[in-house]
Amino acid sequence: MDSAEHIVKSIQASATHMGLTVPTVKEAKDVIGISLLPALQKLFKIEDLDTAQNLVRTYKEYFSKQPALTSVLFPGAINLLAQLQQQNYLLAVATGKGREGLNKAWQDTHSGQYFVSSRSADDALSKPSPDMLQQILQELGLMPNEVLMVGDTTYDMAMAEAINVDRVAVSFGVHEAQRLQQHKPLAIIDKLEDLLNFV
What we know:
With 199 residues, the protein is mainly alpha-helical.
């Protein structure tokens, strides 16, 4: 999902609302992929939990005010999901979004039907901890060598690398290819259909 701009604008608006220094686009994008509370704590260097939780609430208000399809699927995403499902691959989501945000994204994009499992920020430790992946593997009865992680952040790559799960990075998401390469993905793809070369 192409949600980076939506997330960045919501972070910046929240900072303005709370009288905090407004981060640059690059600074805000750097924490995308981490669960919301630790992401905002890291970005704004907030140690006080009450202040951080207030910022989370403010962010969610700004994020939810955006039109439903501000964040849209990348071109070809539904076709790719349908093709993988037809080939009997089990598709799962490990996301820094909360459960409510994930359910809304699925509803807005009509894509939830393709996934058999998911873990959100409400269900597991934040990336780059491998907790989300480990829970999904346990639920589906799979071993790390039977899974491919696809992601656009260093946190995705580090999560998979921590438990020796093969990974493919995408170049058109949040983090730059040079940063993604540090986690030794099988490849960094430039378009979604290229993923089919690795399944």
